[in-house]
Amino acid sequence: MNEPILARRDGAVQVLSFNNPAARNALTGETYKALPAALDAAQRDSGVGAIVLTGVGATFCAGGDLNRLAQRRAMTPSERREGIESLHGMIRAIRDCGKPVIAAVEGAAAGAGLSIALACDMLVAARNASFSVAYVKVGLSPDGGATAFLSGVVSRQLLTELCLTGKPVTGERMQALGAVNRLAEPGAALAEALGFARTLAAGPERAISRIKALCRRAGENSVDAQLDLEARYMVESLGDDEAAEGINAFFGKRPADFAALRLGAVAQSD
């Protein structure tokens, strides 16, 4: 059987690919385990500065395997919930990864595939990519955080329309809605995402992790709670070697070399 997730390095960028192209990269139970494990490995690797998530072949991810989902009718509600929590554990692993995760979307991101793309920190899409909350077409309701993520970028009315019709929208439309960071020509989403990721991978690793956490909590926290979190992270940052390097580089009129700090940490651990 093929590995559910293919992993390869591109410099300081870890590329993770859904590897089920015969089924348009539909999700399986193996995927739910393999992707969090791959993200954890990248998280612990000091040589990795950013992660790109994509799909093998012409499709990012078609969502859940309908053959598997149909079998859940015979399960008890608790058994069905267990399967859904496996998906949700994978979504949380993407969201909680301390390193930037960029989705590179070609073809379709449908159902849970859309949820996965939106769970990433940033999204690069081909102009003609197709995004759809397709659950209603097969009599299902959304999971994987689709409604939570979309509600952060579209009005309630448009969210309801997308979910009730299952109508696909293009990468260009998703960018207009604010959900896509960068557009690429068809076939070039991965290359565009890699360029984006390389820039991020050269940045200060621990500061980026703190910034990611602040951005994730900003929509949930009250202003006071967010101020407290900002203060906590700024206290940590001010005492960090990354800040010393960045400030010294600024006054020295030179580019900051944050990669050297990561490599130094690797050498010390060896």
From TrEMBL:
Annotated GO MF terms: catalytic activity
Domain of life: Bacteria
Gene3D superfamilies per the UniProt record, alphabetical: 2-enoyl-CoA Hydratase, Chain A, domain 1 (3.90.226.10), Lyase 2-enoyl-coa Hydratase, Chain A, domain 2 (1.10.12.10)
Family of this protein: Belongs to the enoyl-CoA hydratase/isomerase family.
Name by which UniProt lists this protein: Enoyl-CoA hydratase
Organism of provenance: Caballeronia novacaledonica
